């Protein structure tokens, strides 16, 4: 299912407009996924320096997909695009293990250390130990993938917005599995919205349709609840 197939699911709602926000760090494959969904040529992709927008209209139903660049200098401007988002897609480079494997190992160490400090602090009433516990907790969340993602989920304008995580580049042998990424990013801790992690390859198209099927189901749920 591409973008056109998605909005055709809502042909009985003329005048309806949907907005999907496509985010992720640089080199994750966001633009390639968007071009794949739009059935466009993906052989020549350049990094997005600002934003791309794809608009599709069918039977008076409109879908806008905003693809925002993921470079560090651009990320502070992501917040300018949060308004009226119906679904958030976050794309991850499954081969860039430095951005989530290290977090998993650091976090396990931090959890063990924090447990020891918490026990000591509760036993002794040591305020200094409690403050150190807070520092450790914050440090454990410093990883780039996780930090950027969870900061997004804390945004008021994205409150309760369904989240689809595309674990991209699964066609490469070095790619981490979707369940590894979910564990490393602590996705199971998300309780305030519907979410799904979908293994995919923007190059081969594998898994892209499954993600769009999930989006379609969640958009229908949203419409029924309104």
From TrEMBL:
<keyword id="KW-0449">Lipoprotein</keyword>
<feature type="binding site">
    <location>
        <position position="70"/>
    </location>
    <ligand>
        <name>GTP</name>
    </ligand>
</feature>
<dbReference type="Pfam" id="PF00025">
    <property type="entry name" value="Arf"/>
</dbReference>
<dbReference type="GO" id="GO:0005525">
    <property type="term" value="F:GTP binding"/>
</dbReference>
<dbReference type="InterPro" id="IPR027417">
    <property type="entry name" value="P-loop_NTPase"/>
</dbReference>
<keyword id="KW-0547">Nucleotide-binding</keyword>
<dbReference type="InterPro" id="IPR005225">
    <property type="entry name" value="Small_GTP-bd"/>
</dbReference>
<keyword id="KW-0342">GTP-binding</keyword>
<keyword id="KW-0479">Metal-binding</keyword>
<dbReference type="GO" id="GO:0046872">
    <property type="term" value="F:metal ion binding"/>
</dbReference>
<dbReference type="InterPro" id="IPR044612">
    <property type="entry name" value="ARL2/3"/>
</dbReference>
<feature type="binding site">
    <location>
        <position position="31"/>
    </location>
    <ligand>
        <name>Mg(2+)</name>
    </ligand>
</feature>
<protein>
    <recommendedName>
        <fullName>ADP-ribosylation factor-like protein 3</fullName>
    </recommendedName>
</protein>
<dbReference type="GO" id="GO:0003924">
    <property type="term" value="F:GTPase activity"/>
</dbReference>
<keyword id="KW-0519">Myristate</keyword>
<keyword id="KW-0460">Magnesium</keyword>
<feature type="binding site">
    <location>
        <position position="48"/>
    </location>
    <ligand>
        <name>Mg(2+)</name>
    </ligand>
</feature>
<comment type="similarity">
    <text>Belongs to the small GTPase superfamily. Arf family.</text>
</comment>
<feature type="binding site">
    <location>
        <begin position="168"/>
        <end position="171"/>
    </location>
    <ligand>
        <name>GTP</name>
    </ligand>
</feature>
<feature type="binding site">
    <location>
        <begin position="24"/>
        <end position="31"/>
    </location>
    <ligand>
        <name>GTP</name>
    </ligand>
</feature>
<dbReference type="InterPro" id="IPR006689">
    <property type="entry name" value="Small_GTPase_ARF/SAR"/>
</dbReference>
């Amino acid at each position: 299912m591409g973008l056109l197939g998605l909005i055709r699911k809502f042909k009985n709602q003329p005048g309806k407009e949907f907005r999907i926000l496509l985010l992720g760090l640089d080199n994750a494959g966001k633009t390639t996924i968007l071009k794949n969904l739009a059935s466009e040529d993906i052989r020549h992709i350049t990094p997005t320096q600002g934003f791309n927008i794809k608009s599709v209209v069918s039977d008076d139903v409109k879908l806008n997909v905003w693809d925002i660049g993921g470079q560090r200098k651009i990320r502070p401007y992501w917040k300018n695009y949060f308004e009226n988002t119906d679904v958030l897609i976050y794309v991850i480079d499954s081969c860039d293990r430095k951005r989530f494997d290290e977090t998993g190992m650091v976090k396990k160490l931090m959890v063990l250390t924090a447990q020891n400090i918490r026990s000591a602090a509760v036993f002794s009433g040591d305020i200094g130990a409690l403050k150190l516990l807070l520092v450790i907790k914050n440090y454990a969340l410093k990883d780039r993938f996780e930090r950027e993602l969870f900061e997004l989920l804390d945004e008021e304008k994205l409150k309760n917005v369904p989240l689809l995580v595309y674990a991209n580049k699964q066609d490469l042998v070095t790619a981490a599995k979707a369940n590894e990424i979910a564990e490393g990013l602590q996705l199971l801790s998300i309780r305030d919205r519907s979410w799904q992690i979908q293994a995919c390859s923007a190059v081969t198209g594998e898994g892209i349709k499954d993600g769009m099927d999930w989006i379609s189901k969640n958009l229908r749920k949203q419409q029924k609840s309104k």
